[in-house]
Design a protein that fits this description.
globular, alpha+beta
Length: 121
């Protein structure tokens, strides 16, 4: 769905601590909206690794796409993709201001819209 995850593997891989944010922003959202939460997570994980070495639990940073519906009227798209709650009709029905469907935009970013169900985490 366009989400990205970075993982710092812990000694105990049965549990994971997750941080992160979204890549999109809303008009007038400001320079700290979205991406700063991703960068802060990356900096924190790097600092922890340098200061303390391999963590006990795995740590992840998530970069979620289209959470605020900034391009498409599809709030929480990245999260909904992971949860498996996106309906097949949304891929061809939801359009941006230029008339581009989510399916077309995904293909333009080298993502396979027909694999949307595989995004479930």
């Amino acid at each position: 769905m366009g989400n990205l995850f970075g993982r710092l593997r812990g000694r105990d891989v049965s549990r994971t601590i997750l941080t992160g944010s979204h890549l999109d922003t809303v008009p007038l959202g400001g320079k700290f909206d979205g991406a700063l939460g991703i960068l802060a997570g990356l900096v924190a994980l790097r600092g922890l690794l340098e200061q303390a070495g391999q963590p006990r639990r795995s740590l992840e940073v998530a970069a979620l796409c289209e959470e605020e519906g900034s391009r498409f009227p599809a709030h929480y798209w990245g999260t909904r993709g992971m949860l498996g709650t996106i309906r097949a009709d949304e891929l061809g029905r939801l359009r941006d201001d230029q008339g581009v469907t989510i399916s077309e935009a995904m293909r333009g970013a080298d993502l396979a819209p027909q694999r949307y169900r595989a995004a479930a985490r």
